[in-house]
Amino acid sequence: MLSFSQVVVEKGGRPILSDINIDLNEKRIGIIGRNGSGKSTFARLFNGLEKPSSGSITLEGSAELKDLRRKVGFVFQNPDNQIVYPIVDEDLAFGLKNLKLPSATIKERITEVMARFQIEHLKDRLTHQLSGGERQMVALAGVLVMQPQMIVFDEPTTLLDLWNKKRLMRAIADLKEHVVLVSHDLDLLREFDRVIHIEAGRIVGDGEPNAVIGDYIARSL
């Protein structure tokens, strides 16, 4: 589905990622690594938030940036980084209006996604008055209304309490879309299909979750 070929990312002449060659087809993929390892930069390449200094990224054979951005959604660690409008309903409609969709289609998509996550009661709420957990669910809903094929999550549970963390992970587990999850919480990834370990800008582990996580823990001792 998504392929990286000889991808390199440099910033200020310093390598952040080097020689990334990988094909990603699994339904649930975890990404782990120490702070500063390059894992977030790697994740941001998935939908064009970061661009490679060299190499190529293709989605279903297309290297067009517009295809990555249309088909791969991104959920930030802090939902305030992606919630734009003051009213929940307006925020969810923002991306859809940019697609110039009919009003009826926009309303239908928003209603469907809000019902899916049981957050219909938030529709007319001020976004800045929502709890952290509610804002994260609104951020996820804002991605889902765009109907991506894949959703990338960058440490989405870091700012959440235990109840909201479990709620978000249940929502992620129920997604029909492909999921890529960057996390320091290793237990969240043990039931995934595949885990990728990034260290010093390179892929040093890739495969069955328990094996890759076990090696990561051993390297950290």
TrEMBL record:
A GO molecular-function annotation: ATP binding
EC number of the protein: 3.6.3.-
UniProt enzyme class: hydrolase
Listed GO CC annotations: ATP-binding cassette (ABC) transporter complex
Domain of life: Bacteria
Pfam family, one: ABC_tran
SMART domains assigned to the protein according to its UniProt record, in alphabetical order: AAA
SUPFAM superfamilies associated with the record: P-loop containing nucleoside triphosphate hydrolases
Keyword ATP-binding part of the UniProt annotation: yes
Xref: CDD domains: ABC_cobalt_CbiO_domain1 (cd03225)
Residue stretches making up the ABC transporter domain: 2-221
Record's keyword terms, sorted: ATP-binding, Hydrolase, Nucleotide-binding, Plasmid, Transport
Transport as UniProt keyword: yes
Protein family according to the UniProt entry: Belongs to the ABC transporter superfamily.
Record's protein name: ATPase
Taxonomic lineage from the root: Bacteria, Pseudomonadati, Pseudomonadota, Alphaproteobacteria, Rhodobacterales
